[in-house]
Amino acid sequence: MSIRLIVGLGNPGPEYEPTRHNAGFWLVDNLANSLPGCRLQREARFNGLVAKTTIAGNELWLLEPLTFMNRSGLSVGQLARFYKIEPGEVLVVHDELDLAPGVAKLKKGGSSGGHNGLKDITAALGTQDYWRLRLGIGHPRSLNSQQQVADYVLHRPRKEEQVLIEEAIEKSLRVLPLAIDGKFDAATMQLHTV
Question: Pseudo-torsion of CA 41, 132, 34, 189, nearest 10°?
């Protein structure tokens, strides 16, 4: 089974653009910008920015929900149902507190780990059985910070963290054609190898 929909998670609006919670948007923006003629455009019926493209010979959709993070499932569910995309053909790209900046991991299924965007997508798709590309942003505890998680994810990364997150995005973009083509083992091995 190949990937037919890549969803980047984030919050809409310029005030959220540079925040850790928007790492999923950053990857999808980079992907769209790297593809000739690929432009994300507002699509009201899917409550998001949408683009149709081809990678590795596979036709796929790119989506950035324009709902807030905790309502991401609305957008994902609408597009997946309309184009008859199965949950196993969906790849959700999101920020991950449990991974350090610079680390990216690919996995299928599992819990939401407290991520409200994933919770809502799971509810909309009726299953946890979809792919996730987890971009590490670190956790305030690992920085010996008392900052609340909700506050931490809604702030911009420190300069050194930003560089590491961008490196993880670049590495992820290099393995995406394998995942899109259904070669998940090869994509995972390449991505998880330091």
Answer: -170
Which domains does the chain show, CATH number per domain?
5-192 (3.40.50.1470)
Is residue 113 predicted with pLDDT exceeding 90?
Answer: no
Q: Say how far apart CA 7 and CA 143 lie, in whole Å.
A: 29
Whether 58 has a binding-site annotation, put simply, is no
Tell me if 144 is assigned to a ligand binding site.
no
Characterize 54-74 residue by residue with b for buried, 16 or more Cβ atoms within 10 angstroms of its Cβ, and e for exposed: ebeeeebbbbbbbbbbebbbb
pTM beyond 0.85: yes
User: Is 116 labeled as ligand-binding?
Assistant: yes
- Give the single-character DSSP code of 127: S
Which residues belong to the active site?
A: 21
Reported as a single tens digit per residue, the pLDDT across 33-89 is 999 999 999 999 999 999 999 998 899 999 999 999 999 999 999 999 999 999 999
